[in-house]
Amino acid sequence: MAERTLSGCHILVAEDEFLIADDLRIELGEADAVVVGPVGTLREALEMARSERRIDGAILDVNLGGDLAYPVADILIERRIPLIFTTGYDGGALPTRFATVARCEKPTTITRIAQAIGRVIHRE
């Protein structure tokens, strides 16, 4: 599924765990997506969310090195960019303004994350 739906899509990846970020970069690249980043800090993610001209979707780890990624999500939502959260937090712990944002609860697989971002980009 990811191979078909992500071709040519520019995906922002904000993930502070290097191995997960690298695995996402590889999986998305194999699906012919263009990876924006990956970035591992809130500061970098904010900069990308504000300045990157083309982002078709975003994968945000809720916790970026101890900083919550909510300000990045707010910018992306304002820009009408589909996103998913990856998180080890209980879904109830997220602010209610993000109740409709898709999430992948950790632990999960890189393939499931790639499929989830494909679904939100194409509103499946």
Summary?
By secondary structure, the protein is an alpha/beta fold. It has 5 helices and 7 strands; from the N terminus they run H-E-H-E-H-E-E-E-H-E-E-H.
Describe how the helices and strands are arranged.
Blueprint: H1 2-5, E1 10-14, H2 18-30, E2 34-39, H3 42-51, E3 57-61, E4 63-64, E5 67-68, H4 70-78, E6 83-87, E7 102-105, H5 110-121
Parallel strand pairs: 1-2, 1-3, 3-6, 6-7
Antiparallel strand pairs: 4-5
Modified residues (4-aspartylphosphate): 61
Keywords: Phosphoprotein
Domain Response regulatory: 10-121
CATH topology: Rossmann fold
The helix/strand class is alpha/beta
Beta content comes to 15-25%
Query: What oligomeric assembly is this protein in?
Result: single chain
* Low-pLDDT ranges: none
Distance between the termini: 11 Å
Main sheet summary: 5 strands, parallel
Overall residue-averaged pLDDT value: 92
- The largest sheet has its strands arranged as 2-1-3-6-7
Known CATH architecture: 3-Layer(aba) Sandwich
Shape: globular
* Number of helices in the DSSP assignment: 5
The number of distinct β-strands equals 7
**What is the CA-based Rg, rounded?**
13 Å
> Could you give me the name of the CATH homologous superfamily?
Response regulator
**Helical proportion?**
25-40%
Task: Describe the protein's architecture and organization.
This protein is an alpha/beta fold and 124 residues long. The chain has a single domain, classed as Response regulator (Rossmann fold, 3-Layer(aba) Sandwich). It is 39% helix and 23% strand. It contains five helices and seven strands. The chain has helices spanning 2-5, 18-30, 42-51, 70-78, 110-121, and strands spanning 10-14, 34-39, 57-61, 63-64, 67-68, 83-87, 102-105. The strands form two sheets. A five-stranded parallel β-sheet has the order 2-1-3-6-7, with helices on both faces. Strands 4-5 form a two-stranded antiparallel sheet. α2 (18-30) links the parallel β1 and β2. α3 packs parallel to α4. The model has no long low-confidence stretch (mean pLDDT 92). Residues 10-121 form the Response regulatory domain. It comes from Sphingomonas yabuuchiae. Keywords: Phosphoprotein.
